[in-house]
Write a structure and sequence with these properties.
Blueprint lengths: L6 H19 L2 H13 L11 H11 L5 H5 L1 H12 L9 E3 L14 E5 L6 E4 L6 H13 L2 H5 L11 E5 L10 E7 L2 E9 L6 E5 L9 E2 L14 H12 L5 E8 L2 E8 L10 E2 L2 H9 L10
Antiparallel strand pairs: 1-4, 2-3, 2-4, 5-6, 5-9, 6-7, 8-11, 9-10
Length: 300
């Protein structure tokens, strides 16, 4: 029996597509301001941004550094990191495809994950060859047509040619594949965001570079159990700082897989500035204070 939607669910089904249409008609600045207001209850200060979220909003609207696009392209960035640090630094690429029609499910190695190279969090996890290949192919087609840059005005994503990336699925240990996200400002790591149990009971904690807990919660429930540092923490810090030294801010995401450091991705607009909030909110200003935009904050 088909489950009846609640009134709230019915409203959401109507409002979301309507908002998507309205959103695409809005000027970029208005869209960013509306999103920020919905997340924080106030319009961002774009003339003199102070908080971390405001500086992400500023970057989305005014930073047109063309170095960013290849570094967030999931395919190109891996090639660049392998060329710079060696092939062992990246997770193997099993295949890339320009269209969903090219995908040969018979030739893939399972389990694997298929990612859209031009978006964040657009993934298909395949534990085995799919029974309904056409359904998965249609899903991959939607991945390629998805215009990530329009959802939150993350400009650099508009510069990427959509493709599909296939990688081996790595389960990880007790907490799944743990994400270590190095918040890096001008080549110095200020904090390490640690994400655990992402596909079961997603929790998060934030550590400083000496692996002391920072008293802040970011969006997901706080992981409070003892957490040993990754085996190669010092090596990870060096990678993060080398990668981040050319940018006022970049989040360098790494894995520790079997005691080896592996590259995940680079993030220049974490959570689009609206999805990863701080509790207490004072940490929004503390993180923002690390990010020096120089004298460029003169836009109106």
């Amino acid at each position: 029996m088909k489950k009846e939607l609640s009134v709230k669910g019915q409203l959401r089904q109507f409002i979301k597509p309507a908002w998507n249409v309205i959103r695409d008609l809005l000027p970029a600045k208005t869209h960013v301001q509306v999103d920020h207001f919905r997340a924080y209850g106030h319009i961002p200060n774009l003339k003199h941004p102070k908080t971390f979220a405001e500086k992400i909003a500023y970057r989305k609207l005014y930073d047109r550094d063309r170095r960013i696009a290849p570094l967030i392209d999931k395919i190109v960035s891996k090639e660049m990191m392998a060329a710079r640090f060696g092939p062992d630094f990246i997770i193997p690429t099993l295949a890339t495809f320009d269209s969903e029609a090219e995908v040969d499910f018979n030739a893939l190695t399972y389990p694997c994950v298929i990612k859209a190279n031009h978006a964040s969090g657009v993934n298909a996890f395949l534990m085995e060859r799919p029974a309904n290949e056409q359904k998965v192919r249609r899903q991959l087609g939607r991945f390629l047509r998805y215009q990530h840059h329009k959802t939150s005005e993350e400009w650099a994503y508009s510069m990427i040619r959509p493709r599909l990336l296939v990688e081996p699925f790595i389960n990880g240990g007790e907490h799944g594949l743990i994400d270590y996200k190095f918040q890096t400002f001008k080549g110095k790591v200020f904090a390490i965001q640690v994400d655990l149990d992402r596909h079961t009971n997603h929790r998060r904690c934030v550590m400083d570079p000496e692996w002391n807990r920072m008293p802040v919660e970011m969006t997901f429930p706080l992981y409070t159990d003892p957490l040993p540092p990754p085996a190669k923490l010092g090596e990870m810090l060096r990678y993060a700082e080398q990668i981040g030294e050319e940018f006022s801010y970049v989040r360098v995401d790494l894995y520790d897989i079997g005691g080896e450091v592996k590259f995940s991705e680079l993030t220049f607009y974490p959570g689009a500035g609206i999805q990863e909030t701080f509790d207490p909110p004072e940490y929004d200003e503390l993180f923002g204070a690390q990010w020096d935009l120089g004298d460029s904050t003169t836009q109106s």
